[in-house]
Amino acid sequence: MRFGLFSLFRESPFTKLEEHAEKVQAGGELFQKAIKCYLDSDCVEFEELHLKVTALESEADRIKQNVRAHLPKGVMLPVDKFQFLWYLREADKVMDAMQDALHWLSYRTTHVPEPLVDDLLLMVDKAVEVIDQFQPMVEGAIRYFHNFSGKERDKVKDVIHDLRQKEFESDQIERKLKSDVFTLTVADPATTFHLIRLVEYIGEISNHAENAGDMMRAMIAK
Question: What superfamily does domain 11-219 belong to in CATH?
Fold first, then answer.
């Protein structure tokens, strides 16, 4: 017999996942602004935005540590504990990847060739679209674990499907960007390396988000 998650705890561990998702989404919005600022030579707010993302990463990390420290031991969860913690790990790595990308940009002022700008911004947009699926995914899971409604389960699956589709689109842009970076910056190896690694960091945002979605999908599986 399956029991509702909220019947087992005074506060559901999923409440903390929702809180964590809010931090990640807020980080995504700031990350997007920071990248746009870096690409705009007239913008002087990059470091301020960078520090705000770093602060949010620390807050998200504290939530992760709090969940790990206070998850009851020896109590039956309606989900696999390993899957629950792995979801949290991957969700937290989304925030880590945003922070890493901005750290990386802060090390060097690189001129991004104009033909690369649109695709770079598009890839960032896709990463943010992936991140924006986190809150509805977690909120839907909370509703599902209240009553194990098949309708609520299907809604969560639909959100995860959208997340994976956007991650796929991000992968396509990443491959094109890498090819174009090598073509357009061949005379400047330092710029090539800096931009390739940046694209990889942005790609990791969507990759870890997809991993988190896969874990959520496993948790709601029948």
Answer: Phosphate transport system protein phou homolog 2; domain 2 (1.20.58.220)
